Amino acid sequence: MTRSARRRGLLVALEGVDGSGKSTLLRALAAALRRRGWSVGTVREPSDPRLGRLAQEASVRDAWTGAVYFTVDRHLAEPGVRRELARRQIVLTDRSFFSTLAYQGSALSPADRRRLERLQLEATVAPDRVLLLDLPPAEAVRRLAGRSSNRSPLERRRTLERVARAYRTLARRWTGWTVLDARQDRAELLADALRAVVGDRKPPARPRRPGQR
User: Fold this and answer.
1) What does the CA dihedral 170, 173, 174, 177 come to, rounded to 10 degrees?
2) Containing domain of residue 177, as a range?
3) Are residues 163 and 17 in contact, defined by beta-carbon separation less than 8 angstroms?
């Protein structure tokens, strides 16, 4: 049996522009799924803060170089993601390669975007489902302003407008995407996310280990 044929957990990516509430929803969603009996793991990108900083800085000067840094980080983290998928029924990831396609890819030519997409599919595990937290860029800027005065260049309104358009295009092109209104009340947003990930399903019984009663 090949590695890809082995049974593994469901990989669910939370995506959206900066300020859309991905990290907050991920924590709430993980806790809610665990209360329902699901085995849940969480990961986030970038996994290496140093590579993440290099990617952010490079993206301002050259989108392709920034994308490559993010891809290297993603590829190095791939074994850990696969281990989580082997151990857990559901793995939630705060961002995925779709972030690179939206942020850096939207600043590239169509030919380079296609190259970048192929590179992502070779570098890591593709999410099974994606929850896109859709937030108007003006609201994202307002939220980010309340966090810190030292914002990344990638958090500027013009950039966020371009990225938001790219995310909506990705949601139309790829299967397995659910678009959520990030302006909703937190409880409503969590309820919508739970429906998108597991619906009314209950977690399957875990197989017993040898000697376990």
Assistant:
1) 60
2) 14-197
3) yes
DSSP 166-177: HHHHHHHHSTTE
Q: Of 30, 20, 54, 38, which Cα lies nearest the Cα of 137?
A: 20
Would you say residue 213 lies in a domain? no
- What is the three-class DSSP state of 72? helix
CATH number at residue 163: 3.40.50.300
Within a domain: residue 137? yes
Residue 189 lies in a domain: yes
Note the maximum CA span of the chain.
Answer: 60
pLDDT tens per residue across span 17-49: 999 999 999 999 999 999 999 999 999 999 999
Taking the model in full, what pTM does it have? 0.89
* Number of domain units in the chain: 1
Instruction: Kindly list the distances between the CA atom of residue 170 and the CA atoms of 23, 55, 59, 134, 167, in Å, as whole numbers in the listed order.
Output: 21, 22, 20, 12, 5
Per-residue model confidence as pLDDT tens digits over 81-98: 999 999 999 999 999 999
Mean pLDDT, the chain, whole residue set: 91
Q: Would you state the structure tokens that stand for residue 92, as one six-digit string?
A: 């939630």
